[in-house]
Amino acid sequence: MSKKPLVSVIIPYHKKKNFFTLTIDSIKKQSFKNFEVILIYDDTDLSELSFVKKKLSKIKNKKILLNKQILGPGFSRNKGISKSRGTYIAFCDADDIWYKDKLKYQLKFMKENKLIFSH
Fold it and tell me: Which of 3, 19, 38, 115 is the most buried (most CB within 10 A)?
């Protein structure tokens, strides 16, 4: 039996405390389970960092990267990609909410259509 491909979920985070619980809950509820979460904390103000760590605490396969200066979402995503191990990359903003089968259906679509990129 072949192992399912690992998906690296890349999340740039900058002052999204009011939305982040719903975002992380939607990721934790994914029907496709072989993923890692790479969160890039893009803020020099560390006041929300303990909140973020607590929300990610039940995700076993995770990395939290701290930017020394604010880089913005694009550069933060690139930093996350450089630390990823996944066969696939999924971008998630810190205020997004995913349907529970988002990863499952997107991977299926990509494989069936021999795609290396979809959005």
Answer: 38
- In degrees rounded to 5, what are phi and psi of residue 45? -80, 110
Task: Check: CB of residue 83 under 8 Å from CB of residue 67.
Answer: no
- Report pLDDT digits (tens) over 13-59: 999 999 999 999 999 999 999 999 999 999 999 999 999 999 999 99
Nearest to 97 by CA among 6, 11, 14: 11
pLDDT, the chain, mean: 94
Report how far residue 9's alpha carbon sits from residue 82's, in angstroms, rounded to the nearest whole number. 12
Parallel, antiparallel, or unpaired for β 7-13 and 62-66? unpaired
Query: What are the backbone dihedrals phi and psi of residue 90, each rounded to the nearest 5 degrees, phi first?
Result: -125, 125
pTM above threshold 0.85? yes
